[in-house]
Amino acid sequence: MRMELRVCKHCLAGEHGNPSKTEVSKDMVECAETVREYKDLIGLDSIYITKVSEGDSGAAQALPAVVASIEGNQIQLSDTQLVMEDDDGNMLVYPEPKDILEVLTRNIQQINTHTSNDVTVDLSEEALSLGVEA
Questions:
Q1: Residue ranges per structural domain of the chain
Q2: 97-112 and 19-37 helices cross at what angle (nearest 10)?
Q3: Mean pLDDT by 10 residues, the chain (134 residues)
Q4: According to the model, what pLDDT value does residue 59 have?
């Protein structure tokens, strides 16, 4: 299985003026980095973390799936998403931050069942307010 987390580079850096989204983006990246470090324990082949900028055409580094929506007459590409591809080539795309964090924290919980190390990520208050359990 392969995974790719895509986050808005500007939200992550706090340049969009939305501190809540910045904290949630940082949590997603920290969780993905933790999963990547221990990926072999849970059978993941690879996990990519891609930071996208406005104007990128989906910015898929590894997995060619992009979430889009229509706002007015404009197509909007989702700059934050988690894409997963299983061994059969099936794709799952999670565009909602709550769902992304849920998938990543469940992977961390699974990692904890396979190691004696204490593998945890301290989620921000903003992430916890989404209902995600660390």
A1: 2-128
A2: 30
A3: 92 89 96 97 94 66 76 82 91 94 96 92 94 80
A4: 54
- Contact between residue 8 and residue 79 where contact means Cβ atoms under 8 Å apart: yes
**Helices (H), ranges, the chain:** 9-12, 19-37, 97-112, 125-128
Query: Residue type for 100, please?
Result: I
Distance linking the first and last C-alpha atoms of the chain: 23
- Report pLDDT for 108: 96
6-42: b (≥16 Cβ within 10 Å) or e? bbbbbbbeeeeeeeebbbbbbbbbbbbebbbebbebb
Contact predicate 7/28, CB 8 Å: yes
